[in-house]
Design brief:
By secondary structure, the chain is an all-alpha fold. The protein is built from 14 helices and no strands.
Amino acid sequence: MLNMQKKSGAMRLLILAGLLFVFVGCAMMNIGDGLSRAIMNQDDPETVRDGAPAYMLLTDSLIQDAPNDVGLLMAGAKLYAVYAGVFAESPERAVRLANKARGYGERALCRKNAAACDLEKLPFDQYMAALGKLGKRDVPALYTYTLTWLVRIQVGNADWNAVADLPKVEAALERIVALDATYENGNPQLYLGVINSLRPPALGGQPEKGQQYFEQAIALSNGKALAVKVAYARYYARLVYDQELHDRLLSEVVESNPVAPELTLANVLAQREAVVLLESGTDYF
């Protein structure tokens, strides 16, 4: 399933997609949109890794002063989730940071819509009914909540109860797409592509459905989000042993110019992952 091998695969996926919008809360912290754009346009991930903890502490302090501010809670949830998924140096630290992200995400959604409080604790039928009560105005909080849930599953993959939550995560993503199919330029479809491509059909997977989601994500991002092609190759192409598709997607990523408005950082990371996957593909296929 999902693993933590050298911060690649699913872990890397979250940083590639998540860093596109994780710092949007900076504007709410009166730091300004300029910082958000500067981070997303950064071509040196190590600079972000070294600088992010200061903003994590700042976010904590602001949330302490305004514990019911949905925008601040979402900003904190995203920041901790991305740092836990990629930059945390040990599994124990990753789990600790992911749990904090999850707590912020739960509080944000609960304060946005009381019908969603303790959502994940509900039996599946009740959970689906509660999702049905959420509307388009709840999408940003629901998406943040779902992102932190995915990260917690990924960094704590030894917790089989968490892995068993994947059907609920998938349902939340599907609800987001149903409410706003263009939200975050295809990121929900990207995650749905991964979830449906984790297992072969014989074990309950739906890779063809996953492929459709990946294609949708590429179209919604106009092909500029290189992380989508990396995930498409890693999860779908490898699962169905399509080396031609695998190598084509990754070669396109490597040969692309990573510089794009608010995508540069994610694209640089995507290219690093693509090189690794191309090299390992020789032994995989």
